[in-house]
Amino acid sequence: MAQDDIRAVSEATLRRLPSYLQLLKVLQSKGRDIVSCSHIGAVLKLDPTQVRKDLASTGIVGRPKVGYEVNALIESVESFLGWNNVSEAFLVGVGSLGTALLGYDRFNRYGLNIVAAFDADAEKIGKTVHGHPILPMDKLTDLAVRMHVMIGVLTVPAEAAQGVTNLMILGGIRAIWNFTQSAIEVPPGVVVQTEDLFSGLAVLSSRLAMTLGAGRKQGETVHASY
Amino acid sequence: MAQDDIRAVSEATLRRLPSYLQLLKVLQSKGRDIVSCSHIGAVLKLDPTQVRKDLASTGIVGRPKVGYEVNALIESVESFLGWNNVSEAFLVGVGSLGTALLGYDRFNRYGLNIVAAFDADAEKIGKTVHGHPILPMDKLTDLAVRMHVMIGVLTVPAEAAQGVTNLMILGGIRAIWNFTQSAIEVPPGVVVQTEDLFSGLAVLSSRLAMTLGAGRKQGETVHASY
DNA sequence: TAGATTGTTAATCGATTAACAATC
DNA sequence: TAGATTGTTAATCGATTAACAATC
């Protein structure tokens, strides 16, 4: 792939990259130098050609007959995702989910460093959650500007989502990881990734209902695409 | 759609159903009786035909020129997903994420009722988290059998995932909501839905890198599919 | 009635999978 | 060399979107 060829990589491909990365790191820790697409595909239950195309979209070039160098592949996937350089992020909304994310110490390996947390609740301000001080909302915009923070993690109640988003935008934040159920509006050039827990639950519920459902022949089974 | 026609509904459709449901409940609370696909599509930024097909797959029949009855539509989507009857679930692994999920009191509206939590840590056993008593792992299988629990929520560290899965299977659990990064093995007839936080982060990171990236024309913007 | 909306079939689009040449 | 694997083009498959008939 030519180096200037920034073609759009499909969301499906992007979503598979972290699973490759995880496997590659396991292989690396086992001292393995080389890996083939067929091997990756066998472990992750994916088509080898698909693995090859996904990897190629990160810019890696392999060696026919040999495969890919594990270290080079990790480097390629990580730099493609921007995960070799840690970006600083603000988290807003220190409820149960926000607290869980603040406690997740492995984000550093995935390019994310949560440097400050914010909450509207005066009770919480000044306290520390998993080593992160909780700051008042009115500091958000100024601090984002001063620290050049690019990423915001949104874990507030749905009704507060748009207001907090607006503060983030004012602070120059360019990417919002949205854990609310609210569809937030942002200006062009700002990226939003919404995580909806219930969409996964819908898949699970429906597949379960199907396996348990009447009218189904005995022994017939349903597999989710995990 | 004929009532015995259990055709496979695509995962993409299943994932959109919760967002329809949420909007419909907002409309219901506003006292609205009738809604059209074009209206739903306009709010959620989806093609009206796609909305119509998604809704049709739940079995609802609308009225030409009029639209769909809001109440009937909610009933149709909920019963399709099995969310009108609450299923009891066990949660295993009371770490930060498990704790957050235990604190999420709205699962009842989504067909899920977490009736017990389990952990391997003796320190945690006997304590109560968000009103849920934490039980020892060795009670899991027997209790699942006795209570006819069908759903397991897996929030343990990756290395414990397969072992706990096996206990769940022995207990007769038929659906596993897997929040670990481990690809678990289950027998036919058991449904697994794996939630990978990092796949969402990969999408965000890559889209951000693309908006910030060099070689990009000024003013060109990238939108995530939120 | 006319027009808006549903229901359904056809066309398009893009992702996945298959085929095969290039390569070490 | 022969065979395995990459890289790439073609075929297939399924989801999305468009077109249009049916309906109130």
Describe this protein's structure.
The structure is a homodimer of 226-residue chains. Helix content of chain A is 39%, strand content 16%. In chain A, the strands form 2 sheets. In chain A, strands 5-6-4-3-7-8-9 form a 7-stranded mixed beta sheet. In chain A, strands 1-2 form a two-stranded antiparallel ribbon. The N terminus and C terminus of chain A are likely disordered. Chain A is globular, with a radius of gyration of 21 Å. The first copy, chain A, is of the alpha/beta class and 226 residues long. In chain A, 40% of the residues are buried. At the A-B interface, helix 1, helix 5, strand 8, strand 9 and helix 8 of A face helix 1, helix 5, strand 8, strand 9 and helix 8 of B. The structure holds a DNA duplex (24 and 24 nucleotides).
Helix-strand string of chain A: HEHHEHEHEEEHEHEEH
In angstroms, what separates the terminal alpha carbons of chain A? 30 Å
Q: What fraction of the residues of chain A are assigned to beta strands by DSSP? A: 15-25%
Secondary-structure content class of chain A: alpha/beta
Shape by Cα distribution of chain A: globular
Helix content of chain A: 25-40%
Q: What spatial order of strands do you see in the largest sheet of chain A?
A: 5-6-4-3-7-8-9
Largest sheet of chain A: 7 strands, mixed
Largest interface: A-B, 72 and 71 residues
Quaternary form:
homodimer
Number of helices of chain A: 8
Number of strands of chain A: 9
Low-confidence stretches of chain A: 1-6, 214-226
Q: Which value, in Å, is the CA radius of gyration of chain A?
A: 21 Å
Mean pLDDT of chain A: 90
